[in-house]
Amino acid sequence: LATGPRQNNSIFYEIRTYDIKPSKMKEFVEMANKYLHLRTVHSELVGFWSAELGAMNKVVHIWKYDNFAHRTAVRRALANDRNWQGKFLSPALTLIEKQHNEVAYLVPWCQLGKPPKEGGVYEWVTFQMKPGGPALWGEAFQAAINAHVNTGYTKLIGVFHTEYGLLNTVHVIWWNESPEHRAAGRHSAHEDARVVAAVRDSVIFLESQQNMLLIPLQCSPLK
């Protein structure tokens, strides 16, 4: 995060979170795996996950857009795509209790990553920072993230800063081989003086944080 422009291009990511009716979660996942290819012909899907821990009956998916005009064109095309509307969207809407979306940018010091192999788990951590933006807390936050990266126990996938939605929100996505591997790594990291110091400097700017353990759907590019 920087005191100047966030990035050198207009690419942004739409983060969509759906709360699914508890009795319909299995049905929704099956429909997504079967029909999401009808959606991805219109724009790029980064990842699609279901929550395993930290939330229940929730799915999170991220879509990449070149700019806002691109998103507008995609949404218009989707509204006119009878195949997508009929096979997935109309039936799926009856399974969803609540929808939420945010627009976010990748922070300029982070490239969107990929896991070294398939079959692991993702941790989605949401930090609500104090008002003031990156000019206030960006440097300390970056140092805290890099301190965890440098321990080597986890893989950083992406760091996103909200543009629309709840402001001063940062979403961080990590990948680990398993929940056990994550737990052991975090235990070691919290005994690392470099991590402790970096977190101590960053946490003074923190309002709240929460996390979820996510499992990628079969249709997700990130697995």
UniProtKB/TrEMBL annotation:
Identify its protein family: Belongs to the NipSnap family.
This chain's protein is named: NPS3A protein
State the Gene3D superfamilies in the record: 3.30.70.100
The gene that this protein is the product of is Nipsnap3a
One BP term from GO: mitophagy
Gene Ontology CC: mitochondrion
List where the protein spans the membrane. none
Residue ranges annotated for the NIPSNAP domain, each copy included: 13-111, 122-221
Q: Which Pfam families match?
A: NIPSNAP
